[in-house]
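Batch manifest, entry 17 of 40.
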Amino acid sequence: MRFLKHNRSGQSLAEVLVATTITAILVVAAVALISPVIRNDKYVGKLGTSTALSRELLENVKTFTASNWHNISDRATSSLNKYYLITNTSPFQVTSGSSTVIVASTTYTTYFYVDEARRDITTKNVTTTLINSTIDPATLIVTVVTTFPDNQSSTVSQILTRFQNSVFIQSDWSGGEGAPPTTSSSINQFVTGSNINTTSTPGSIILNNL
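Output type: structure tokens
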């Protein structure tokens, strides 16, 4: 009687190769699924940091503006004019350009710009349209932008309105007509007038025929 001896080693090797191939496919698939999640988590983290930096700068700009409206109203408008604040001085200082900060090895660039605000003539609401609207000199739109690698950024905007006015006493009108409609300090002129005498008594305005 003859006994056949089966060679099991070849089958075992084939099984190992199949199992290895399947495992490799599963690993590649898992990596393909997990990698976007990891990248997205990193992006969300950087976006959160950039948003926090934007809001911090916006709060500093609001404080800077509240101390003196001209701190912000004297800035050139449009997104082409970038500014940032130097906050390690008292009071804050504004300068052209942008500032950088490194957080967890990522470099963030932050700046703000100022836009004119227009109000609808009928509703008085702030609007972006030029039709039936006029510029409100007591209202400005401040936008803060923070960028980080891969051309990503976060943007925060807020409408700022002048709510404080500098008060001064003017007693000298000898300069006559020609003053600007608004001024931040006492001068010796007035905008315009009629039927008045500003020359007979220096520094005084006297109505004619009185």
